């Protein structure tokens, strides 16, 4: 029988990065607040956590991130103005973000990497499993990746990472996993036997790359405290998870969900633009007119034949 474990109830969203790839837009605006159609990227992530049953959300922030707190707070003056105008639709949109979840904040302090950001969440999380969602990865709401990860963690204990197949020439951009089958596991479930953070080209243990969703056992905190800086001089979460994968006695095994759904990478400028176009095309209110314009535009550019 699978080992029953306490189900995760809290989500942690690291949001202390400087967003240098999007300068100058991120000089005064947090990268997490860049709009994806008409919602900031961070709101998609919080909505995903809530859909998965995690309505207690901790954001690990840094300097110049006050806009995040403002977005998930009440905007009384704006709400009052919209009420006076009788604009119920906009009022509902404004209130939606402040009513989504119970959102908390903690400062990371020194920007010492993802592992360090996760460690900053320990006082809030306590001795229970928890989810970590990276804001650069948006998972389509039709693909319940996080819910599946929570299910596996509750059944088997330990930690769970999300893996996605990538081209062999891109493995050096990710943490990559060595994996093995799970006895009695579903076709999307694997056991992680090793992890390598951004392996040198040609040395990756597989083409299965870790993407920005984790469900972690609380033992990860003790390991992170003892994890020395790794690649880039930062405390890497991958390095701590590797210790758990190599020695499950430290805090349970590491399992993986192989994700084959729709993922939008907003951490790269080109991928960010593609994400905006894809999501706009699929919106019922925007999609029909936008798709018509987009078709005309690509024909005008000579990308498609007239």
Describe, in plain words, how this protein is organized in 3D:
The chain is α/β, with parallel strands linked by helices and 306 residues long. The chain has a single domain (10-267), classed as Spore Coat Polysaccharide Biosynthesis Protein SpsA, Chain A, CATH 3.90.550.10. Helix content is 35%, strand content 23%. It has 11 helices and 13 strands. It has helices at residues 41-51, 66-71, 76-85, 88-99, 114-119, 122-125, 145-156, 220-226, 237-246, 269-282, 287-300, and strands spanning 10-15, 35-36, 39-40, 56-61, 102-107, 130-133, 137-139, 159-165, 175-181, 189-197, 208-216, 254-258, 263-265. The strands form 3 sheets. It has a 9-stranded mixed beta sheet with strand order 5-4-1-6-11-8-12-10-9. Strands 2-3 form a two-stranded antiparallel sheet. It has a two-stranded antiparallel ribbon with strand order 7-13. A hairpin with a 2-residue loop joins strand 2 and strand 3 (39-40). Helix 3 (76-85) packs antiparallel against helix 4 (88-99) and helix 10 packs across helix 11 (287-300).
CATH architecture: Alpha-Beta Complex
The tally of helices reads 11
Largest sheet: 9 strands, mixed
Supply Rg. 20 Å
Task: Give the CATH H-level superfamily.
Answer: Spore Coat Polysaccharide Biosynthesis Protein SpsA, Chain A
Number of domains: 1
**What best-fitting shape do the alpha-carbon axes yield?**
globular
How far from one another are the termini?
Answer: 61 Å
Strand content: 15-25%
The poorly predicted ranges are none
SSE-based structural type: alpha/beta
